[in-house]
Amino acid sequence: MQQTESNFQNPLNTPERLISLDEVESITGFKSSYIYSKIQKCEFPQPVKIGTASRWKFSEIQNWVHNKIKGDTPAKRAGGAR
Fold first, then answer.
1. Is 24 exposed, middle or buried (0-12, 13-18, 19+ CB in 10 A)?
2. What is the pTM of this model?
3. In three state form, how does the secondary structure of the chain look?
4. How many Cβ atoms are within 10 Å of 4's Cβ, its own excluded?
5. Phi, psi at residue 57, to the nearest 5°?
6. Closest CA to 58 of 10, 22, 13
7. Which band of pLDDT confidence, cut at 50, 70 and 90, is reported for residue 74?
8. What is the pLDDT of residues 8-55, one digit of tens each?
9. CB–CB of 7/1 below 8 Å?
10. Residue 20 and residue 6: Cα distance in Å, rounded?
11. Main-chain dihedrals φ then ψ at residue 50, nearest 5 degrees
12. Cβ pair 17, 50 in contact under 8 A
């Protein structure tokens, strides 16, 4: 199967795992307030609610990071550094 953007999330077809907010913060480098503000704007993956706990699908966080990196080109960085 050819890898595309839609199946980048789980390229090795490994079982999905849920991660905590601490792990999401560690992976993205963002604090919870920023993450939750992006969730409210539908700009970040929604958590899975298990009782009162929130967990995120690891594959969705990986995909979000990948898409942010892909959208950050050298030209955009040079233009924003003025």
1. buried
2. 0.70
3. CCCCHHHCCCCCCCCCCEECHHHHHHHHCCCHHHHHHHHHCCCCCCCEEECCEEEEEHHHHHHHHHHHHHHCCHHHHHHHCC
4. 7
5. -75, 125
6. 10
7. low
8. 555 567 789 999 999 999 999 999 999 999 999 999 999 999 999 999
9. yes
10. 23
11. -125, 100
12. no
Q: Indicate the angle between helix axes 58-71 and 21-28, nearest 10 degrees.
A: 20
Dihedral sign (CA 5, 11, 16, 19): negative
Instruction: Tell me how far apart the alpha carbons of residues 24 and 55 are, in angstroms, rounded to a whole number.
Output: 9
Phi, psi of 49 (to 5 degrees): -90, 130
φ, ψ of residue 18 to 5 degrees: the values are -100, 140
Length of the chain: 82
Amino acid at 2: Q
CATH number of 16-73: 1.10.238
